[in-house]
Every structure is written in structure tokens, then in C-alpha cells.
Specification:
Structural class: alpha+beta
Distance between the termini: 63 Å
Largest sheet: 6 strands, mixed
Number of helices: 16
Strand content: 5-15%
Number of domains: 4
Order of helices and strands: HHHHHHHEEHHEEEEHEHEHEEEEHEHHH
CATH architecture of the largest domain: 2-Layer Sandwich
Helix content: 40-55%
CATH topology of the largest domain: Nucleotidyltransferase, domain 5
CATH class of the largest domain: Alpha Beta
Number of strands: 13
């Protein structure tokens, strides 16, 4: 049995008067992340980055809160999975780390939210400044980058997003319901009984459907005037993503990841439903951020577009993109286009049966010149026809600049391991952003605001990764150098 004299460890009385006040700085250790945030933000030229009110005026009313303090607050928040302006306001009242960093200032949530909205474009420059800092620490290999996209949910439900087909279906359903209720109302009017609650209810439903029908017609007119293929009502820039992404309405996030330490070299936000056509823009921007003249980039089949690949090569980016395995030829198990050898000297294609396909027709594919090769006579008598086509003869289309695709195929054949490097490099940032950071949706609306928000997300990911690699002291030393 325990002695009655024994007691638990006791704290001090909350009413105890201290001889000297406690120093807030004592609560933040020398290797704490907030000390790096403080040093990093203080080293930046916020006025050059485009932050509002970065330099107070010499006269007039006070300039308000220093943007450096609010930037520190947001970086800390995104590092600690606190993105909401209201939650950040709460942290300033209870979190000693934030109190230390903000020097006991306590702006309200609206001031915090306005800062993110007003400086949306400046956050991207801060992200690039940290990329430069990581370059000075040799954290980027600057030889191979991996590009891929993911979808994050927008502040817009699927019920407030319409395509032309969805609008037509909704209007047909409204017309069908309206006709059914009008018939029920006519049947009730033919009765000799006085109006009942059921009749009043039908009239209310009919009025509601007519109002809904008018709204749908207005949405259809707005969609036609916009020239777009869909319209969103809450966030006008958000788009319905492909059903396989399970996101509904959102944005397409593109990142370029350096394969050395899985740091993000470039990040972009688009409202394109697919990734096609986004490789050159993302990879070339990453090359510029990394400060190199030439770099290799690997991406999945969703980026296979000859115009994009050609632009990459012209910009000093060497692409590795496998060819998509789809289409009627692949589905039916026919000879693929790659099995037709091109004879540059004769200007013909040699089919698997050894016959020559002559250029017969010219075509235009997305402003690219193309030629269609055929040999109708040879196809009729060919023993391999069942393995080649189910039509009267086989057509093979070849771009005028098809050699670009052949060069890339040769590169992939010589270096197949880059496909695995792509997957290994991209799973880490996407997994960290969605799982560890908990960001599967955006808090802001309109694409420019969303771009600013994701710039903070990518910055926080890179900071967390760099802290793992070199620590707080290493990052602060690089700032001071």
C-alpha cells in the first residue's frame, strides 16, 4: 500500500507571481523550424517578389501588418497542416511557436485570408527562391526530372457543374416532370370537388420546376457565350475531371520532380482535364528553375504528343515518353505502326509482309503535316491480312516529323530504367501532399488564387524535405552564406 505522504509531481500555482517574466525565446530551441522560417523570410526581398505593402509609405496612415510576418505564418501553417485562415488565427492565441514567430501580433482571420488572396502571384516567386536555395546546397541532381499530374478538388460540387450534354439531360428531365405534374393538375381540375392541399402542392411543384427550367436555360446561354465545353457556378475556372480520377470538379496539378532527392523543381495548376500538351511547359520551366541548359524528362503515356515532344527537344529538354497502348489496332491485335519500316531513300513503308506502301493521301493533324501510306493491290492478296486489318486494305499514317518519335523510342529502349525512376520519384511528393499534408482539396476559388495556394503547398513540401536532408542549421547556414 502506498504511503499517504507520497504525492504526484506538482506544478506551480497559476496565481504565483514571478520575480521576472518568462522569455518567449526560451520556448523555441535553436534547431526549431520556426527559426529557419524567420531567417528565410527575412532574407527575401518581398517588394521585388510583388508583395503588397512590403514597403510602408513615408507619410499617411500606418501600412498595416508587415507582409513578412503573414508570410511566415502561412509557411508555418502549411508545414503543420493548418491551411485555414480561421485556424491560423486560433494558433496565434495558443501556440507558443507562432507567438514567438509573430512577435505576439494577432491579426484576425480576414486579414490573414486577404493576404493570401492579394499576394497569390508572389507565392510562386517565393517557391522559386527556395528552389535556388536548395540548388546552393546541391540538393538537385539537375540531370533527370519526372513530370506527372494529379487532380485536387475545387470549391465546386458536381451538381453545380454543367456540360452541354448534362444541361440537355437536366432540361429533358424537367420537361418530363413538368408534363407529368400538369397532367395531374388537369385531372384534379376536372373533378367537381373544391381545391385541395394536393392541388396547391402540385402548383408549388410546377412553379419550382419552371424556375429551375429557366435557370438551366440561362446556364445553357452562358455556356454557349463562353465558348467552353462546361461551366461551373461556384468556381468558374474549375472543371469536371475525368471520372477515373474520382475527384469530380477540380484542377489539374502538374509537378516536375528532380529524381536525386524527390524535390519539386516546378509546379503548375491548370484546368485541363488531361495532361496532353502540358509536358513542354512544365519541363522547360523546371529546366529554367534548375539553371541548366539541357535536362532529361520522363513522363507517362498521357503526355505522348508529337508537337509537345518536338517543343521539348527545341528547348533543350530530352523527353522519355512511352507510346500509349490504345486504339483499334492494339485492341484487335493487329500489326502496330512500329512494325512498318520506313525506307527514307525510297519514301515508302515496308509492311511485315515485305510489301511497299506508297504515300497516297495528305492529311493535317493538329497543324502537323501527315501522309497516309497504302497498297490496296498488295493487301487484297496478302496472307497476313487477317493479322493486319479487318478493312479492305491497311492505312498507315506517318507525320512529316515522325523521326522525333523514333529518336525517343530509341532513347527509351537504351534506358528503360527511367520509367521506374519516374514512378519512384513522383509517388513521394503526391503521397506526402495528399496523405501527410492532408491536402485533397483547395480552400480558394478561381485559378489564380488556387495557383497561389498550391505554391505554398509545394514550398512547404520542399522545406520539409530539405529539413530532412540537411536540417535547420544547414538551411540557415546556406541563407547566411
Amino acid at each position: 500500500m502506498l504511503s499517504s505522504r507520497m504525492k504526484h509531481i506538482q506544478g506551480t500555482s497559476r496565481a504565483q507571481t514571478l520575480l521576472l517574466p518568462a522569455c518567449v525565446d526560451d520556448y523555441v530551441g535553436p534547431d526549431h523550424v520556426v527559426r529557419f522560417i524567420e531567417a528565410f523570410v527575412e532574407s527575401l526581398d518581398l517588394a521585388a517578389a510583388g508583395f503588397e505593402r512590403a514597403r510602408p509609405k513615408a507619410t499617411g496612415r500606418p501600412a498595416g501588418y508587415d507582409p513578412s510576418g503573414l508570410l511566415k505564418l502561412y509557411i508555418y501553417g502549411y508545414l503543420n497542416r493548418v491551411r485555414s485562415s480561421r485556424c491560423l488565427e486560433t494558433e496565434m492565441h495558443r501556440n507558443l511557436e507562432v507567438i514567438w514567430m509573430m512577435r505576439q501580433l494577432q491579426p484576425d482571420f480576414k486579414t490573414i485570408a486577404d493576404f493570401r488572396r492579394e499576394n497569390k502571384t508572389a507565392f510562386r516567386k517565393i517557391f522559386r527562391e527556395f528552389v535556388v536555395l536548395c540548388r546552393s546546397l546541391d540538393l538537385f541532381g539537375r540531370e533527370l526530372i519526372a513530370v506527372d499530374g494529379t487532380r485536387l478538388k475545387a470549391v465546386n460540387s458536381g451538381q453545380r457543374n454543367f456540360t452541354k450534354a448534362k444541361l440537355a439531360k437536366a432540361m429533358d428531365e424537367s420537361d418530363e416532370r413538368l408534363g407529368r405534374y400538369l397532367k395531374q393538375l388537369d385531372d384534379a381540375d376536372r373533378d367537381d370537388t373544391p381545391p385541395s392541399a394536393r392541388v396547391d402542392n402540385l402548383k408549388q411543384k410546377i412553379a419550382a420546376i419552371k424556375e429551375r427550367r429557366a435557370q438551366l436555360e440561362q446556364h445553357h446561354a452562358d455556356l454557349e457565350a463562353s465558348g467552353e465545353d462546361q461551366i461551373s457556378l461556384t468556381d468558374q475556372d474549375a472543371r469536371a475531371m475525368h471520372f477515373s480520377s474520382r475527384i469530380g470538379v477540380g484542377y489539374n496539378i502538374q509537378i516536375a520532380v528532380d529524381t536525386k532527392h524527390k524535390l519539386i523543381a516546378e509546379q503548375q495548376v491548370h484546368n485541363n482535364v488531361g495532361d496532353l500538351g502540358l509536358l513542354d511547359e512544365t519541363a522547360n520551366a523546371a529546366r529554367e528553375n534548375l539553371g541548366v541548359d539541357r535536362i532529361d524528362v520522363v513522363a507517362d503515356r498521357g503526355y505522348y504528343k508529337i508537337e509537345d515532344i518536338e517543343d521539348c527537344e527545341a528547348a533543350g529538354v530530352k523527353p522519355y515518353v512511352p507510346k500509349p497502348l490504345h486504339g483499334s489496332v492494339v485492341k484487335n491485335g493487329f500489326f502496330t505502326k512500329e512494325e512498318f519500316r520506313y525506307d527514307a531513300d525510297a519514301g515508302v513503308l515496308i509492311c511485315p509482309g515485305g510489301q511497299k506502301l506508297e504515300p497516297k493521301y495528305k492529311s493535317k493533324i493538329r497543324d502537323n503535316d501527315a501522309v497516309i501510306f497504302v497498297n490496296t493491290k498488295a493487301c487484297k492478296a496478302c496472307d497476313l491480312r487477317a493479322r493486319c486489318t479487318n478493312a479492305a486494305f491497311r492505312k498507315v499514317m506517318r507525320y512529316a516529323n515522325e523521326a522525333i518519335l523514333h529518336r525517343m523510342a530509341d532513347r527509351l529502349a537504351a534506358r528503360p530504367e527511367v520509367i521506374d525512376q519516374r514512378r519512384e520519384s513522383l509517388e513521394h511528393p503526391f503521397g506526402s501532399i495528399k496523405q501527410w499534408m492532408g491536402q485533397r482539396n483547395f480552400l480558394t476559388r478561381r485559378i489564380e488564387n488556387v495557383r497561389g495556394e498550391f505554391s505554398l503547398t509545394a514550398l512547404a513540401y520542399n522545406i520539409r524535405r530539405a529539413l530532412t536532408l540537411v536540417g535547420v542549421a544547414g538551411l540557415i547556414s546556406a541563407i547566411s552564406a
